[in-house]
Amino acid sequence: MLEEVRTWLRSAIFNALFFSSTALLTLVGAPLLPFLSAHAVRVYARMWMRLVHMLLRGIVGLEVEIRGADRIPKGSVIFASKHQSALDTLVFHLVRTDVVYGLKRELAYLPIFSWYLARAGNIFLDRGGAAKALKSLLRGAKEAVARGCSIVIFPEGTRTPPGAPPDYKAGVAALYAALGVPVVPVALDTGRFWPRRSFVKRPGRAVVEFLDPIAPGLPRERFMAELERRIEERQRLLEAEALRGRSRDAAGRVIAAVPGDEAR
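User: That's the sequence. What structure does it adopt?
Assistant: Structure tokens below.
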């Protein structure tokens, strides 16, 4: 009981500092936005994310271990990631600053923060149904890849709790076919520590693991089957590892970018 109270208090302190520091950095950088390149905005986002990770380590006792960053090919790729937590969106810029996201159109109406999202080159999806949203994603992704950027997509479309049955949508296959770049599957167990829509963040060591890339050119059905197999097999191993207890001195935290992180 006492430990739960401590966890709640640490979470409260972290949440307060997370939102206040985010607001402060958003306001401080806003006057400079018209003069910054998309790459410079993403570097600024990386600085903010490093601050968030520092707060997580220092207050909550939560560290994020990055595995397999050396498997990421140079040049544009599609990161096809499992999605369990808001924490997932605070990882990719630590590895590569060339990444952009497909975002709900509603995020374009957030005061000031949306300016950063747009300036960084992210893709706002059209409303009006799945077909219209997919069309806008494909259009924006092609433009991003032409600029040398990489795309982050969550193939299940939304956050799912650990252990939930997989539900991979066809949008990732459409991107794979249209862009002709490698797909890097990503497995993780962040939801055990920063659960979906949860006030409480729990101490421990979360893992985000980049798996071997899938080369372009596979038929749609084979690609979807291979993507799901690779991610879900690794998910089961990560969950079993977390249940056994993960060493807190494991190596793997990202402190610098990987090859291929050139300015774009």
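The helical segments are 2-29, 38-60, 92-95, 113-119, 130-146, 171-179, 220-244.
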